[in-house]
Design brief:
The chain has about 120 residues and is mainly beta. It is built from 1 helix and 9 strands, in the order H-E-E-E-E-E-E-E-E-E. The chain has a 5-stranded mixed β-sheet, with no helix packed on it. A 4-stranded mixed β-sheet has the order 2-1-4-7, with no helix packed on it.
Length: about 120
């Protein structure tokens, strides 16, 4: 009985959701789904100024992280498995999209000081 309970607890721990890091964003796509369903996960994050945010391309297509603001504060691309890192020093709300797939949209909220 004790072995069964231990096995169940180990299984539950292995299958529990992993905590999401506030400085990590996944770019994803699925060629079987319409491009409108592709995106960034999470779609919006909040970080303190000076935090390095990492965008990882977990899809099968090339993606970018392109600033919506003019002039572009950032514009970087990543092939499958590659990472893009951004360090935003100015507080504000930075909307972004994929330059190749414009329906992919996200937001980085940069706060002056620590985040809640």
């Amino acid at each position: 009985m004790a072995r069964a309970i231990l096995a169940l607890l180990l299984f539950a721990a292995a299958c529990a959701p992993r905590p999401v890091r506030a400085d990590q964003v996944r770019m994803y796509d699925d060629p079987r789904r319409p491009e409108k369903e592709w995106g960034y996960e999470p779609r919006a994050i909040e970080v303190a100024k000076g935090t390095t945010v990492t965008f990882t391309n977990a899809g099968v297509a090339f993606h970018s992280v392109t600033s919506d603001s003019a002039p572009r504060a950032f514009d970087a691309g990543a092939n499958l498995g590659e990472k893009v890192t951004l360090t935003l020093e100015r507080p504000g709300t930075w909307a972004c999209h994929c330059g190749v797939h414009p329906d992919m949209k996200g937001v980085v909220h940069v706060r002056d000081g620590s985040c809640r």
